Amino acid sequence: MITLPPCLFRPACHVWEVCGIHNGQYPTVLMSDVSAEQRESGHAVVRFTARVAGLVQGVGFRDYVRTRGRRLGLVGSATNLPDGAVEVVAEGPEPACRDLLHLLMTGHTPGRTDRVEAVWQVAQSDLTDFRRK
Q1: How many domains does the chain have?
Q2: Crossing angle of the two packed helices 94-106 and 61-71, in degrees rounded to 10
Q3: Known catalytic residues?
Q4: Regarding beta strands 45-55 and 86-93, do their DSSP bridges make them parallel or antiparallel, or are they unpaired?
Q5: C or N: which end of the chain has fewer Cβ atoms within 10 Å?
Q6: pLDDT at 65
Q7: Band (32; pLDDT cuts 50, 70, 90)
Q8: 1, part of any domain
Q9: Model pLDDT for residues 64-84, shown as the tens digit of each residue
Q10: 92 in Cβ contact with 74 (< 8 Å)
Q11: In what order do the strands lie in the sheet with 75-80?
Q12: Residue 122 confidence class, pLDDT cut points 50, 70, 90
């Protein structure tokens, strides 16, 4: 498995903090395990794990993520963490994963999103549905 460095995004200022990508650009998923043919056809299957901080527990955030993930044809989970954040794991076609991550970052979610940290990975194909945990 190849993991890219985490990218931190603060919705309030719309700036990537760690990966160095600015102006609304998203990190490119560059993984040797994803074939060039898959990338070119748009059929690369990827996974991201995101930690979403803010007022995201007790406000319907996990249900929102599950509903949006399913509509995008993704599998994964949305799990409350002890520190008040929510962990989102999503797997599926790269464009759909990017769309879900974008939704998490825009702040147009239940509650309030203050910070999103995302790590991209090669798909593990161990998920069968999008679940709220």
Answers
A1: 1
A2: 150
A3: 62, 80
A4: antiparallel
A5: N
A6: 96
A7: very low
A8: no
A9: 999 999 999 999 999 999 999
A10: yes
A11: 15-16, 7-10, 112-122, 45-55, 86-93, 75-80, 130-132
A12: confident
